[in-house]
Amino acid sequence: MSSVIKRELSKQKKILHPNSRKVRAIAKKSKKAIAREHTKQTGTVKQNLIREKMLWMIDHMVPNICPYTPQLTAELIEKYIARNDEEIQWIEEKNKLPGRKNQSHASRKDILRMNKERELDDYNGCGIEIPNILNSTQCEMLREWDGDVRWLPNFTFRRFGKRHVEELTTQRENTKSEEKLSKKSQVTEKSSPKENTAEKIDDKKEEMYAQKINMETENILK
């Protein structure tokens, strides 16, 4: 019996029938209170998991780069997925020692392995949710965040998957290539008038030289 039901029943001055409307109302109220408490606990657990993920990323981000590039974002997420590999390897090596009959830390190893598989599936599928560090404001906020969960609503979260990051990287490279071509064409357009002017000057010189030769030839003939 929940504490809510006990508290409500203790307020009653007489014994209630199990099928009475009063008892049903108390049970309904108790069910709502339990659901509300469960939601609160679930939200707290989720916030703590997000907090741990963000703090890990802050510690492993490349300094002095803001915003992050898609390629660096992919590398950061892949490092995050593999963050427990050393501990898993240590447990496996410890269990391989001669003379050991029982598998120590087996449950811990299973938890880490299942977490990695789940995160890897998310990364290869819908993506892993992290703050949008491709945005300079969000990236700077993450770097300066002190771990207080009260500020989590200020972050803009985005799912980054392997396919999504590869597409963003390709788009970024294409944009850079287009910008280079655009700058090159602008330089060519700026330099072309000078070339035309130089050609005109050369033509003028040749024309003047031809006129001079003709005049000298006429003088000789005279």
UniProtKB/TrEMBL annotation:
The beginning of the lineage is: Eukaryota, Metazoa, Ecdysozoa, Arthropoda, Hexapoda
Q: Where is this region: Disordered?
A: 170-222
Instruction: Return the Basic and acidic residues bias intervals.
Output: 170-182, 191-209
Q: Which family does it belong to?
A: Belongs to the TMA16 family.
Q: What is this protein called?
A: Translation machinery-associated protein 16
Q: Which superkingdom?
A: Eukaryota
GO cellular component, alphabetical, reads: nucleus
Q: Which InterPro entries match?
A: Tma16 (IPR021346), Tma16_sf (IPR038356)
